[in-house]
Design brief:
The complex is a heterodimer of chains A (107) and B (167).
Chain A lengths: L6 H22 L3 H25 L7 H31 L13
Helix pairs in contact in A: 1-2, 2-3
Chain B lengths: L2 H19 L3 H21 L3 H25 L15 H21 L15 H9 L3 H22 L9
Classes of the chains: A mainly alpha (107), B mainly alpha (167).
Chain lengths: 107, 167
């Protein structure tokens, strides 16, 4: 199998593995911060796909995949800031970051 | 497939696995930093220097630090007595495994159709800058507005409410 895997397929497989690990973390962990870490891993896997397709695609000089990845990094940074701010505020309110205990929307 | 790729892929996947599986939340954040560094090195290996260094600056320099701050501010490093995984962990694991099976199957099936060798692209930072303020200037401005709004929103959300202040 090692000799048959082309470079692009190798990067895509690593990205798929990272995405699945992030998804497993987001779905199984109880700490809200760890769920955010899983989401960050999924976003990064998508970035790896974009860069890999940019590198092996037909027109790398057009910079399309690279630009998509750079904007994606910026959006992910904004998402992390707001998400962690929400976690801190929920911790102040409910004194916990355990998602299994956050089962009501009423304040 | 080069030897370097296998080392970097192993490092990245091991960091991601540790970030998801470790019990202590601070250790998870450090393992996440390793995964981000591995991804940055994979970007460099793909001749995307600018994206690699942006990844190091944004993720290792900012996001990982933010995660550590959030963990320490919420006392999240205390391991709960009844385990770190939720009650429905088996369903989550099954969903993740199914997603990986579908993605991996799709990649393996189409591996022969993918372009597998391309000349090394020579993209300078100057070209990236000209593209950012030329063809991609509208998305750049929108991202600037988004970052400002996110920063103000994060500060307002996390701002400490004084007693008696309107909620």
């Amino acid at each position: 199998m090692t000799s048959q895997v082309t470079p692009l397929a190798g990067y895509l497989l690593v990205a798929a593995l990272l995405f699945s690990i992030g998804l497993a973390g987001a779905l199984t962990r109880r700490n809200a911060i760890l769920v955010l870490i899983g989401i960050e891993l999924m976003l990064n896997a998508a970035n790896l796909n974009l860069i890999a397709f940019w590198r092996y695609g037909p027109h790398p000089e057009a910079l399309t995949g690279m630009m998509f990845a750079i904007f994606s990094i910026a959006v992910a940074a904004a998402e992390a800031a707001v998400g962690l701010g929400l976690v801190i505020q929920i911790y102040r309110h409910a004194k916990t970051t355990d998602l299994d205990q956050m089962n009501r929307m009423k304040g | 497939m080069s030897f370097v790729f296998y080392i970097l892929a192993t490092l990245t996947v091991a960091g991601a696995l540790a970030a998801v599986l470790l019990k202590n939340t601070v250790h998870c954040a450090l393992a996440l930093t390793v995964a981000f560094a591995g991804l940055a090195l994979l970007f460099l290996n793909l001749d995307a220097q600018f994206a690699g260094f942006a990844q190091i600056l944004v993720y290792i320099g900012a996001v990982a630090i933010l995660v550590v701050f959030a963990i320490l501010l919420t006392k999240g490093s205390d391991t709960p007595a009844d385990g770190v995984f939720s009650r429905t962990w088996l369903a989550g694991l099954a969903i993740a495994a199914a997603v990986f099976a579908v993605l991996g199957w799709a990649v393996i099936q189409t591996a022969n159709l993918l372009p597998n060798s391309a000349p090394t692209p020579t993209v300078s930072v100057q070209q990236i800058g000209q593209a950012l303020v030329g063809r991609y200037v509208l998305p750049l401005e929108i991202v600037a507005v988004l970052l400002t709004a996110a920063m103000i929103g994060a500060v307002i959300i996390a701002m400490h409410e004084k007693d008696g202040a309107p909620k």
